[in-house]
Amino acid sequence: MVAQEMLSRVKTDFFAILIPGSFIMGVIVSVVLVFTQYDTELCIMERFNSFFETLKGNWVLSFIVFIMIFLVGNLLHSIRVNKVDRIANFFFNGLIKEPRDKAHFENPFPYRAMLEEIKTGLLKVKLIEDIPLPEDRDTLHDVFIYWKTVIRMDSPGSFHHIQDLEGRVRMFAGMFWAGVVGILGSIGSIVTLSSFIFNEAAWSVWGGYILFMFIISVIISAAFSLSLKHARSEEVKAVFLTYLYLQKKMREEKREKGKEKGSVLG
Fold first, then answer.
1. DSSP track, 232-245
2. Mapping DSSP to helix (H, G, I), strand (E, B) and coil, where does residue 133 land?
3. 7, 86, 135, 207: which could join 203 in a potential S-S bond, CB 3.0 to 4.6 Å?
4. Banded model confidence at residue 152, pLDDT cuts 50, 70, 90
């Protein structure tokens, strides 16, 4: 069980911390090269190959770079996901037409309208017993954390699955911020190269690459912030459904114990 929990944490941390941190490190390296290398004798790939050859031959520097990636990734990991949630609402709310998806954009996490819809459907087919959902957003958020605590205690296997879903959400949020850093790095590089506006050779070396980095960063920020809603709703669904199942299982066990106790007394 301990090994399974450690493996789950490693998977979660790898995607949620190291990937966004690695992207930002790549942006930092790119900006440093733009700021320090103005000669036009080498192509861009040769410049990056030189950097990686330096890392390959110096394990101390490689270790420092890895630590920096890990620290930057953790910094992104610590930023509240709700910030990206609100940014996604601002930019993409008008583009969403599907009623179910639109409900995610119009309701704050953990999406009370979606939970009510799930609960109503399950009550119709008598799969669950009704549980109240608080109207207040902060209270509902605290209840959501309580559900996760119950799942962690009563169903570790389900909790590991939920951790994987949460790790995906964290990775999406981290990649959004990594894309933002890429956009800012691209703009900074353009400002730097503006001093060489009459140097066509400098622009021929870095101009295309900076434009590529800017476009990729914009795509990453837009794609991951837009997909964050779906990923987060999947996490909420998993938590809610698992909690409902555990509650139903607990009630059934109590009924069985009550029947057994009654038959013994009888």
1. HHHHHHHHHHHHHH
2. coil
3. 207
4. very high
Residue 175 to residues 74, 158, 221, Cα–Cα distance (Å): 12, 26, 7
pLDDT in tens, 94-127: 777 676 666 666 678 888 888 998 999 999 988 8
Q: How far apart are CA 39 and CA 79, in angstroms?
A: 39
Q: Which residue has the tokens 């939920």?
A: 162
Mean pLDDT of 202-210: 73
Q: Which of 62, 239, 84 is nearest to 177 (CA)?
A: 84
Q: What mean pLDDT is reported for the chain?
A: 81
Considering the entire predicted model, what is its pTM? Answer: 0.81
CA distance 159 to 164: 9
Of residues 201 and 192, the one with the higher pLDDT is 192
CB atoms within 10 A of CB 40: 14
d(CA 15, CA 106): 28
Asked if residues 176 and 18 have their Cβ atoms less than 8 Å apart, the reply is no
Pair of tokens at residue 97: 């037409």
239-263 average pLDDT score: 79
Q: Is 158 helix (H, G, I), strand (E, B) or coil?
A: helix
| SS3 category, 121 | helix
> Cα–Cα distance between 49 and 211 in angstroms, integer?
20
